[in-house]
Design goal:
This protein is mainly alpha-helical. The protein contains eleven helices and four strands, in the order H-H-H-H-H-H-H-H-H-E-E-H-E-E-H. Strands 1-2 form a two-stranded antiparallel ribbon. A hairpin with a 4-residue loop joins strand 3 and strand 4 (about 245-250). Helix 6 (about 90-115) packs across helix 7, helix 7 packs across helix 10 and helix 8 runs parallel beside helix 10 (about 200-215). The longest helix has 28 residues, at about 115-140. The termini are far apart. Residues about 230-265 have low confidence and may be disordered.
Length: about 270
Amino acid sequence: MNSPSPRGPAGRLLRAARDYPRRAPLTLTYVCLLLTAHVWIGHGLSADRAAAVLGHVSTNLDNLQDHPLSALLGSALFFDGTLTDVASTEFVGTFITLGLGVCCFLARAERRWGKLRSAAVFLGGHVAATLLTAAVIIVALRNGWYPEDVRHTLDYGVSYGAQTVLAISTPALPRRARLPWALFVLAWPLGGAEWSGPLPDFTTVGHLIAAAIGFALPAVPGFRRPRVRASGFPAVTADDGHHRATVVEPVPPAAAAASRTPPSGS
């Protein structure tokens, strides 16, 4: 006889962990890839070799001019943070970007919109925010707001894509939670910002741009409604008070057979 499943928050957490591989396989694969790359760069390579790899995938101006594709894609294979020093501010950033942004909200986006659209949101936010930030850096350099060495500074990681996912998820939250969440998404990058003239540091600028991209994307028709998970069944549209969702209801076999049988003549 099977033991009853635990109830309450612990039970929901266990069920979510059990269903995670089935409901968000792409996100799970990506998280495993990020963790593997983190261990490899931190323990599998010498310090000089690790610095060379991260220097190559850094999305600074020099690399974007020399090898933009490998820098943009390679940067998304690593996260800049720590998993062990839980008392540090770096761990807070890791928790927000990797924990909330990738593990939780990217998985939620995959369940809601499917693999292709969720990947497009994440990668599109990562690339667009990086390129727009590079444009801001160029303007800042011309005006003397940033030092010249910003051209080749080390800048890599998943945080811009994660920030886009955090922002785009706002309309799917309960109505009363949307404004506090949006304020959190905008405020956390500013917590450690360093200002140079009228601008904060370029990483803060990038996170704010990524958030703006995420907030704007729900206006795109493709992201207004969740995907339909099955075909061949009638869809019933339900309104939960926050957003309209398409609910697929199976048709009983008897009812389906009756619908295919023509009425007998008199």
